[in-house]
Model the fold of this input.
Amino acid sequence: MKRIFSIIFLLFLCCQASLMAQMNTLNNNFGSSASGLDRDKYDRNGNPIDTTAVVDANTIPIGLYSWKVDSRFGNVTYIPVDTLQHNFQNTNDMGGLTGQYNYLGNLGSPRLSRIFFDRRDASQYIFTDPYDFCVQRPQDVIFTNTLSPFTNLTYYKGGGSRDGEERFKSYFAINANKKLGFGFYIDYLYGRGLYSDQSTAFFNGGLFSSYRGDKYDMHFIFSNDNLKMAENGGITDDRYVTNPLDMAEGKKEYATGEIPTRLKQIWNHNTSYHAFLTHRYNLGFYKEKEDSVSADSVKITQVFVPVTSFIHTLEVDLNNRKYISYDTQQNQQYFEYNYLGNDSIDKTKRTSIKNTIGIALQEGFNKWAKAGLTAFLSYEHRNFALTDTTDIPGQRVIKNYKESALSIGGELSKKQGNLLHYNVLGELAIAGEDAGQFSVEGKGDLNVHLFGDTVRLDVNAFVKNQNPVFYYRHFQSKHYWWNNDLSKIMRTRLEGKLSIDKWGTQLRAGVENIKNYTYLANTSVPVTNAEGERTGFKNNAAVKQYSGNIQVLSAILEQKFNVGIFHLDAEVAYQKSSEQDILPLPELSAYGNLYMKFGLAKKVLQIEMGADVRYFSKYYAPDYSPAIGQFYNQNPEDKIEIGGFPVVNLYANLHLKRTRIFVMMYHVNAGSGKSNYFLAPHYPINPSMLKLGFSWNFFD
Done:
């Protein structure tokens, strides 16, 4: 790892030095600083940034701005450059910035949000969905326009060299001129694992480019994900963590690496390639715009006003999954079925090509165009390759499932102005595998000046009739095998959010109704001895569908307080599922961060010091299946509760010019109380560990 890090670091420095020399002649061609453009900017917590308070390039770098694009039309959403100090210590935390995710303990392991409304819809390739911590979809990639080459290098380290964790991230962006830019990102993650057979080794990266002209606009991404994870099935007995003295008759406490686990020599390996292209051609006209240069001088410029846009978006995905298992005896003992006999490798592949074409009438090209209107047509071809058996023992063939989906839709949106914005999008599948599937989604925000501040009300609602994804309908593998005829899932949601920045208050509440909720279930069967006593279970899984209605109610309150240098950030979430056995959710989740914030050396060095705590009430959290790398409901005959145990971290954040540093003592309360620190059944999180993080920005 040290050798790899050193080589990559040197390559980046060499690349930057040469590109900086080449770019010196380009800086004079950019015109005025991009940071002066009138754009909405928000920090990572959704709070507006006061750009008038920025006086140096360390917070919002001069001549540098960033954005993301949506994966359907390529519409741009501007975001702030990530140079914020606050919560930097949690940017590499598997539990998320406010600790709302369940995961398996090790860095990079699969995770699932406990906040139901924050969960993404399942993708057609479900095997990488639990890795959203590091796998980026097209809408997650950040594009940058910069006056000079911009580089960010970030390094995280936790624990020792034998069983610790490391992560190295790099981001580079450069512009050839005002309109054309290029860049790449790399994310290397290696979690050795404190518990046996749980290592993670991920290497993700991508190239991106953008061209943003008056008449032609283009964004391109090519990325690769390589995820290899060892599976241990969890520890054999939770008492090794909750009551360690009971497991050795009071003579010994086990080190984490000595605690026996259920499985060994098993890996899930996902390799994916993605290509994304969205571009549009705009028809419109130029008009003159007057800008004041001084009290007696006016500058007249030509501004392009788009009227109609022709849009094309292409998405190509190639996914490969290998499930590797070498211990035949272990497989016979642990799993109910071994459909592929003693085969050590089980493969599945997915290929998808999706084209979307659209025509948009732009908002604001005259006084009557109060909203934008877009019509679109999408066609997706999907091919899934699964291993199959034949009548000849030991012979394997590949069975291909080909699917297509043709859909039409439209969007009505209002983005201009300060008072009201909205977006309504509808889509209907008219042919193919998903025929009859439809969705209507609406978002809006109302901004009212009240209490000496702008009060913002956001509303989000949708009605979706969804066809269950392919792998819920068909799956063939070494241990699980199903072909299901499933009904469409009907979902209706209404959610609102009230934000008062001056008070540091954000209240979010919503309700959803789900019919035909489709989920993975643990269907393991008990094993008994000669006396009829249950000695364990043989693992199996199945897809199930609940034909009734499930209601989910959610309310989340975020509140920030400060008195002088003392600050408190608090978040409390309440959830209620009407069918806890089908859709289990904790009723209470909470996060608190108490810290001091101050500056030294004429405030050049900014410091945050404090402690945070995350907690959730006890519930029957989803279990985890190593054979498919997915979370599934617990076996009704072998259920356990997790939760009711706070996790406390101590930290210090430092921000000096272009460098951010944090030092954290993670999980300082490990070993206290009943030590019930599990975020998934039988998967304890790591005990106390020292963590470090560094982030450098170079944009000279």
Summary: Residues 1-61 have pLDDT under 50 and may be disordered. Residues 337 and 401 are 23 Å apart (CA to CA). The chain is about 5% helix and 55% strand.
